[in-house]
Give the backbone structure.
Amino acid sequence: MGKFEAGEWVLLTSQKGKRWLVRIENEPYSSHLGGIRLFDIVGKDEGDWLVTTKGAKLMLFRPTLEDYIFSMKRHTQIIYPKDLSAMVFYGDVYPGCAILETGIGSGALALTLLRAMCGRGRLISVEKRVEFALGARENISRFFGANPEHHSIIAADIQDVALNCTVDRVFVDLPEPWHAIPNFAKVLRMGGLLVSLSPNVGQVQLMYRELKANGFGDIVNFELIRRDWKVDQMRARPFDRMVAHTGFITVAKRVAAVGVDAETIDAEPENGDAADNGELAV
């Protein structure tokens, strides 16, 4: 990307890591470190400095998606980047895929999916709360500079809406996702992936039962814990605070009915070895 231009977003970063996300406009900007003229950023490169009226140096960067997500207006708790990145990776999102997202919230997951899709394919977001849908649309439009043409937001309850489409992926962030599993099964193609985020394990158990009952298999459940470290020339130790449990991620595949119940599918020989009668242990 070239030099900064008027109208762009810029992340002002102090030497101690304090950050401000601002748009480059013809007006002054001030903080406790002093003031600058935002138009002085035009023509500079990423990594350059501006000196404030108080003599502080501010580094200039283009914001990452993480920077934007943590600065945008939020009606709801956002999905943390550690979970967002895992959901997109294990959901195998690629340019050109068709995705159904339910529970758009403030738009963090939708932004991440749209970025991974690279302007190709189709993202359909279904959100029950109209105010959440409008807020997410504003956040997404603000980030991209316009409403992405391949993104649609439907203000409706996923349990009631009838979708006349087939999708490759389903992403779920709902308080009671198990109620919507039958609807997901109708639109997700065979072999397609469903990815769900739930804060407590009781939700995961109910989700698992409904997935098994509605033609899903190869179900995996996990959580991710991130611990940052303090590293300098004299020491290396973990920070006292960390982003620990934020949610459980469930990944499942749409499969053809196999004619057996969940207990039979999950059962294993007691000795942990394959059966010796010539059949493959499942």
Q: What stands out?
A: The longest helix spans residues 130-144.
